Every structure is written in structure tokens, then in C-alpha cells.
Amino acid sequence: MEATNLLYRDPALYDVIQSDSTSAGMCQTLIELHRPDARTLVDFGCGTGRDLEILAQHFECIGVDLQPGLVDYAHQARPALDICTGDMRTARLGSRMDVVTCMGNSLAYVHDNNDIGQVFATFAAHARPGALLVLCSPVAPITRTEPTTAAVDTPTGSATVTIRHTWDLRTQINTMHRHWMLPSGDEARDEIRRRVLFPQELERYAEGAGFEVLDMLDGTGTGLTGPTAYTVARQIPR
Fold first, then answer.
1. Ranges for the Methyltransferase domain (predicted)?
2. What is the pTM of this model?
């Protein structure tokens, strides 16, 4: 995954690109709505810890990420955070939390059905009875074929990135192809492959792991219309 994603190879750039993320705010809103007494939280796929740093102002937090480079950067940039390297298919921290989160499309990087089931088993293994599960993941493909170009501020100046998407219905993989023109004048290309889990698929995986889906919303205030959604579920006490 690191080899195909420029941002994973350059954690400082990743941190800048993620600086406008609203995931932590949305996550906090959902927790206040559905589990206002929550005190502890584990975030799988925490990246450089930018969202976790915000959540840690309100909860006792642990972060887990697969990419050692991002975790090393997080230790340097945010030394107060408790972040470790781990695979969310198999990670077992030995503790259960009030809230389990997986944001930033991390779930979408798991493509195999069995692996997705293992990830949800990990969520369940770290959830206290009645715990809240908050996910952010693609629920519909981006199918437009025309490329888009945008300017991106980086630690070394302004870059330009051109993005186009392809969609494979058979595998449910949405691939984002990026062409970067970097401030140095160098060019770079990368591909981001994300598995789209449609809403009823997400619900099926969640229920299979012992969670009841409470809501799905895309943050627009108009229900579920966009390609990415927040799923909030509660572990069913057994």
C-alpha cells in the first residue's frame, strides 16, 4: 500500500493534506448523540494521529495504524498520543473501549470479504458491552471519468494534482489515479484502490460482529446522498 500511495511515503505531506479533515468533529458529534457517557476510544487506521489528537481532548485514546512510517511520524509530531503499529485484521490490544472508530477510508483498503470479516471481529474484540462503532467509508463509487485538477499546499510550496477515477463493478474497487506536479518540478503518480461497501453490506458485516446499525449519514444534513458515509452502530449486549 505504501508503494502505491505518495502520501504514505511522505507523512508530512499526508498531514498537510488531512489538515481540513472534519472526521474528528463528526465522530465527536455522533458520540455525544449516541454515547454521551463515553470515556475511552480506540481508532483503527489513525494515520499520523491528526484526528486522534482532537479526540484525545475529550477521550482517553489509543490509535493503531498499519503504516510504520505514519506511526513514526505521529510519535515525533504528537508524542503525547498512544499510537502503535498494527494490522486491524489481527490486532488485539487486550482492552475494550467505549468507542471504536475507523475513519479516513481505512476500511476501504481492505478488499477481501474474509479480511473485512476479520476487521469487524477486531472491532468487536475491542468493544465494551454497548460500545459505539463509528466508521467512515465509501458506500457508492465515484464513476465520473473526466479528470479534475486542484492546487495543493505542501510543506515545500504549492503542488498540482490531477485525479481521475475508474470503477470495477466485479470487485467493487474504485481506483483513484493521481498525477502530481510537485513544487520541485518533479512528477509523481500513484493509485489508491478502495473497496466500496454498499450500505446493506456494511450493515451485514456489522450485524455479523454483534453490532446494531443506528444510522448512516454523509454529513450533508440531507440523509445519505454522497459517495462516503459515516456509519454509527452499537454493540448488542450479549
1. 42-130
2. 0.93
